[in-house]
């Protein structure tokens, strides 16, 4: 009788608690980071900062974070592949997270109204349909966070990219430009706000809300029209936690 009571307690109380605890831990991530335009430093700057955030919070294995650039000097200095359409697609398709892992894709570049994201290295465009195919091949149903930072990028926060296992964050509505692509800028408005918001809450919804607010305030200060960043939170990953740096142990 006592054994049956213990089993009942474990199934009804302890097991759900363990499941919730496991869900509350950010899954290890395989990542692809893309600076799609090589003419301005803002895009590679954002990829460098995002790679540093991943190293600090996720402690990834060296081969689980792939960086691509359209700047030939960055390619030569860091010995990374070019951000050509073929290389971007191949890198995402090759992610193949193991059970319990997630995918993370960050793409920052110029956007082309009604088409997608510019990949200047080979003068190509990454469309929402192409990104969806690459994510489906490379990540399947694994939890996936895809961030597309470009003008008119809101088209990526809709089907087909918007799926139940994906979180999609974009810098602007599909019919709006975003701002900060200047030679004197360190980051675009959206990228800077996103990077500063990664520690603003336990979940990606918190990060997006803080990013939206930051972008709105910056645009008001700069007297720019609202870019209206867009977000999609699939039902299967609505409460996906954000990786955070582990605080140093007390001495």
Give a description of the structure.
The chain has 7 helices and 10 strands. It has 251 residues and is an alpha/beta fold. It has a domain at 29-175 and 229-237. The chain is globular, with a radius of gyration of 19 Å.
Proportion of strand residues: 15-25%
Shape: globular
Using DSSP, what is the number of strands? Answer: 10
Structure class: alpha/beta
Q: End-to-end distance, in Å?
A: 47 Å
Topology as a string of helices (H) and strands (E): HEHEHEHEEEEHEEHHE
Average pLDDT, all residues: 90
Unreliable residue runs = 1-23, 247-251
The major sheet is characterized as: 7 strands, mixed
From the alpha carbons, calculate the radius of gyration and give it in angstroms. 19 Å
The side-by-side strand order for the widest beta sheet comes to: 3-2-1-4-8-9-10
Helix content, binned percent: 25-40%
Count up the helices. Answer: 7
Query: What oligomeric state best describes the polypeptide chains here?
Result: single chain
